[in-house]
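Re: beginner question about structure tokens

> Can someone show what the tokenized structure looks like for a real chain? I only ever see the sequence side.

Sure, here's an example I had lying around. Input first:
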Amino acid sequence: MGMKVTFIFILNLCSILFFCFDRNSAYEGVMNPNMVTNSDDIKMKITIGSAVFTASFNNNATAIAFNEKLPMTIHMKELNGNEKYFDLSSKLPANPSNPGTIQSGDLMLYGSGTLVLFYKSFKTSYSYTRIGRIEKPAGLAAALGSGNVTVIFEVD
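And the corresponding structure tokens:
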């Protein structure tokens, strides 16, 4: 009789775990409609003056956390003739690595609190966490200009 009770207990436990797993996967992303679960799921609209760019999110915790802060209008500062940056008011999860080469249109996190939008391609020895990438960066450098600039990030 002890073996039968143990078997029924294990069977019930497995049923409960299966139900919970199935229910959670069925509702994935429903609680927050802006939640990024795949880089193709949601696009980001980046507006600089009259220029509008579309970006894809990377599929990582940093992109998800950044997406939850949108919409966001920020005043980005010029740095090195190849990037604009902004120090966020709160830190984002980070998993930095060295990309080797930065591409024009890369949106990355430096450290855990500095948002960086690159408008020129170049080799780098610094480490960043990827957030996303502008799909067609032609005209990005011209839109950003050579000084500080206001940029609007929102879910597209």
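Each token stands for a local structural state, so reading them left to right follows the chain. The first strand starts at residue 43 and ends at 48.
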